[in-house]
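Second attempt. The first submission of Sulfurtransferase had a stray character pasted in from the spreadsheet, which I only caught after the job came back as garbage. Lesson logged: always re-copy from the clean sequence file. Corrected sequence (126 aa) follows.
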Amino acid sequence: MLEYMQYLFAAFVFWFVVSKLLPVRGLTALTPQDVQDRLNQKNQHIFVDVREVHEYKQGHIKGFQNIPLSQLKARLDELPKDKSIVLTCQSGMRSRQAAKLLKKQGCSQLAHLKTGVIGWSGPLSK
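This time the job returned cleanly.
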């Protein structure tokens, strides 16, 4: 029985890790240049940085509003479901989690900076 539980636990851990790494269906992965192009079309997109406030204040991409992932569910009413939403975070992981949450809430036009802010080649605002 103990051996069975160990296999079950290992399978759960494997599933958890894989589920975090799998691509989000319908999420467009953008390069820094793609994001810059979309920033030049401001009226067509909503830009959201899902890092925590202290991370955002250390430097963010100009044009991105801060809605931390930890607050996103409570602040869904700030994001129109019928507009394109471009997400970013530090490395691309939290923006994918945010996309999963937004997709479940009915947002369909989702994209993220696949490298996160660490891959951004332009200037950062403070």
